[in-house]
Amino acid sequence: MEPLKVEKFTTADRGNGLRAVAPLRPGELLFRSDPLAYTVSKGSRGVVCDHCLLGKEAWRVIGLSPEPENI
């Protein structure tokens, strides 16, 4: 396994972040993590599915259902 090319840092005015500690290639995957939690914002309620976050049009395109129940 390659050593990480990023490190976590904290600043008083901007909070937490990640920064490169080694040269990077365009398109290189730097970090991957499963989400701990998510929520649909008020502006997206009724627009995206609460479970998969896909929009109504995406559901139609992939042929899952005319409209998911949880939109």
From TrEMBL:
InterPro entries: SET_dom_sf. This is SET and MYND domain containing 3. It comes from Cavia porcellus (Guinea pig).
